[in-house]
Structure formats: C-alpha cells, structure tokens
Write a structure and sequence with these properties.
The protein is mainly alpha-helical. 66% of the residues lie in helices and 8% in strands. It contains 4 helices and 3 strands. A 3-stranded antiparallel β-sheet has the order 1-2-3. The relative contact order is 0.19.
Length: 73
C-alpha cells in the first residue's frame, strides 16, 4: 500500500477509526490524536515510520491491505 493511500485511510472520517485501531494493534502503539502515535515508551512515531514498519512486516502489510480492499469493495 502506498504511503498516500495509507495516509488518506487514516485521515478520512469514514475509515480513520478502523485504520487507527489496526495500526495500534499491528504496531503496539497508542493513538495521540491527529495522525500521531506513541510507542510503549511514549516516544512519538510519525505516520511515515508507522507506514514503513507495516510495509516491512509481511503479516501486517497483508492485514492492512485486506482491510483497505474490504472498504474499497
């Protein structure tokens, strides 16, 4: 999934809640509002880094892609 699609899904009102929860689950992060997340050590993680981490994990990448395809259909 491209970064642009990832960002759009996190920022679109009808998809953001679902995708934010998925990012939190896949990467063990906490959503801090807007497009900000923090890890268990309270270090902020930008959406670019979240996208990179998801793309580098095959299972996470598949889960994100499948969720996006379910919305598109």
């Amino acid at each position: 999934m491209s970064f642009g699609t990832f960002e759009r899904l996190l920022d679109t009102p009808n998809t953001s809640a679902d995708f934010i929860r998925l990012v939190e689950h896949l990467l063990d992060l906490r959503h801090e509002g807007d497009l900000r997340f923090v890890d268990i050590s309270s270090h902020e993680l930008g959406i670019e880094e979240a996208h990179y981490r998801i793309q580098s994990q095959e299972v996470s990448q598949g889960a994100m892609y499948n969720r996006a395809m379910n919305i598109v259909r």
